[in-house]
Design brief:
Layout: H1 6-16, H2 19-26, H3 33-40, E1 45-47, E2 62-64, E3 67-69, E4 73-75, H4 88-98, E5 103-105, H5 113-119, E6 124-129, H6 134-146, E7 151-155, H7 165-170, H8 180-187, H9 190-199, H10 217-226, H11 234-243, E8 247-253, H12 256-264, E9 269-272, H13 286-297, E10 302-305, H14 312-320, E11 325-328, H15 330-362, H16 367-373, E12 378-380
Parallel strand pairs: 4-11, 5-6, 6-7, 7-8, 8-9, 9-10, 10-11
Antiparallel strand pairs: 1-12, 2-3
Helix pairs in contact: 1-15, 4-15, 12-13, 14-15
């Protein structure tokens, strides 16, 4: 089955993966209303069509996070990519770099940044969950710098882990070792089991040197989750800023007030994100929050965006409403699970082509023009007051 859109990749991933791992990436918090809204609310934003513009192939290159990229989107941090395909982090990074964009590695990764650096020379970023063990957090930042990562994303909306009912049913992050029941479930996916069993990683490399986190992915994932500092405050950002000399981005901002405070705290950028609807269920979709956040920080501050991206039109809408760049999550993870590195390359191509056709049909020659015209070329289906 060819991958011609993100939903195709999702169906293939569901077919290939054990349920415990598919539900981990596909699911959301509580009733999953915010997860659903992240996707659905794009449908309420309408684009302006322009005809007979003589449009040529649009220029999709743009600047964000201090660099010029060939595409207006990058691969965002997703935990345990190495459980979706063997060497999954390396495969995703190579696909991103071949397309002229970046990958951000999650704290919860099978591979380390050093592993990725050995696999590819392209731009790498690191996403940090701030741990109660500040020494380990400091070690992770130092390792990121040593691997040549130039951007640090600090995730701030997971200091308390929400109830994710699918994970509760499956036992993800509560199981610390393989049980007979889980082994039987894994055995129902022989292609996945063969791939991961023979070539996959069996631990979180960043904490392999710490026996207190346990041995094996299940134990390490559970203990690493428990190690996230729930007492994190704005004052702690000063410590991170003093330790990280590269670009610092705060991920998980949904309100104008928090956006302005992140800017004042010395961050170089923010990510408008509700963690894919996996944390506070009932908060607004990210696309609804974006315009007010952009207004709060001004035009020259870097605003990245994630949540609900399933089409190239979604990326166009996010950029029109104030995003400098877009971060993919589930979209490329489904593709990785479906077809490995080729799957990630395919979904990048799908989204690039959709953006290309969308801009051409709107009579827009470049991402730069899309940003410049912004809210003038989108409007809300129900005439919601505001920027658009």
């Amino acid at each position: 089955m060819a991958i011609v859109n993100v939903e195709d990749a999702r169906r293939l991933a569901r077919r290939r993966l054990p349920r415990i791992f598919f539900d981990y990436i596909d699911g959301g918090a509580f009733a999953e209303k915010t997860r659903q809204a992240n996707e659905a609310d794009f449908g309420d934003i309408l684009l302006k069509q322009s005809v007979l513009t003589g449009a040529h192939t649009p220029d999709l290159a743009t600047h964000f996070l201090g660099r010029k990229f060939s595409l207006p989107f990058m691969l965002g941090p997703v935990g345990f990519l190495g459980l979706y395909a063997s060497n999954g982090e390396q495969k995703a990074a190579r696909a991103a770099h071949a397309a002229g964009t970046a990958l951000c590695l999650s704290t919860f990764s099978i591979a380390s940044l050093a592993d990725l650096r050995r696999a590819t020379a392209g731009p790498l970023h690191f996403q940090l969950y701030v741990l109660k063990d500040r020494l380990l957090a400091d070690e992770m930042m130092a390792a990121a710098a040593a691997a040549g990562a130039d951007v640090l994303f600090v995730t701030v909306d997971c200091t308390v882990t929400a109830v994710r009912e699918r994970d509760l049913r499956n036992g993800f992050r509560s199981l610390t070792h393989l049980t007979p029941s889980l082994m039987l479930k894994l055995a129902t996916k022989p292609r996945w089991l063969l791939d991961i069993g023979l070539r996959g990683g069996r631990s979180v490399r960043a904490i392999d040197h710490r026996p207190d986190f346990g041995r094996g992915i299940l134990a390490q994932a559970a203990n690493l989750s428990k190690g996230i500092d729930p007492s994190l405050t704005w004052n702690d950002l000063a410590w991170i800023r003093s330790r990280w000399k590269g670009t610092l981005v705060i991920k998980g901002v949904m309100s104008p007030e928090d956006a302005a405070r992140a800017k004042d705290a010395g961050a170089d950028g923010i990510v408008v994100s509700n963690h894919g609807g996996r944390q506070l269920d009932g908060v607004s979709s990210t696309i609804q929050a974006l315009p007010a956040v952009r207004h709060a920080v001004g035009a020259d501050f870097c605003v990245m965006f994630d949540g609900g991206i399933r089409r190239g039109t979604d990326i166009v809408k996010a950029i029109a409403l104030g995003a400098d760049g877009v971060m993919l999550g589930r979209a490329y993870t489904f593709a990785l699970a479906a077809a490995g590195e080729r799957g990630v390359a395919d979904i990048i191509t799908v989204l690039r082509d959709e953006i290309d056709k969308t801009l051409a049909l709107m009579g827009i020659a470049s991402i730069a023009e899309l940003k410049e015209r912004g809210g003038d070329i989108v409007h809300h289906r129900f005439g919601r007051p505001g920027r658009y």
